[in-house]
Amino acid sequence: MRTRPRPAFPASALILVLSLAAAAGPASGQYVPDRWSWETRDPSQVGMDAAALQEAIAIHLANESTAPRDQEEGLSLIHISEPTRPY
Fold this sequence. Notes:
By secondary structure, the protein is mainly α. Helix content is 39%, strand content 0%.
């Protein structure tokens, strides 16, 4: 009978490392906005071509989905329901 090899890095250690990293917060110099006070900048300030950005926005608006933004409403339109028996 073959036994499964033990992982070199147990899941509990991974959870501990990720928890500590999350508690440490963002790296220094990283921009993390407050909930209601986002910075705004001109495209040229961040190295973007303003004309190309406007063109991309126009393409997006011209091809935006007509599906409802409310997921529950969208699913009700296509008549999906929960399975009645397990498979």
